[in-house]
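Figure 6 in text form: structure in, sequence out.
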């Protein structure tokens, strides 16, 4: 799949470290562009990130 941000790279499966306001929320699966490095999570993963933030009172 082509990267929607740079339109040059391909998206590869990987993991990204998520932080919010300097607090580490953990690593989550994502599609990562092999050119610009932008990462994209699906809706289920985004919900898990939001839940992790809520557990840490963010």
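Output sequence:
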């Amino acid at each position: 799949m082509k990267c929607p941000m740079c339109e040059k790279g391909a998206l590869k499966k990987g993991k990204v470290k998520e932080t919010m306001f300097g607090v580490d929320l953990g690593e989550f699966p994502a599609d990562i562009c092999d050119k610009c490095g932008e990462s994209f999570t699906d809706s289920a993963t985004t919900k898990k990130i939001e839940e992790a933030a809520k557990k840490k009172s963010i």
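Caption detail: Strands lie at 11-20, 23-33, 39-40.
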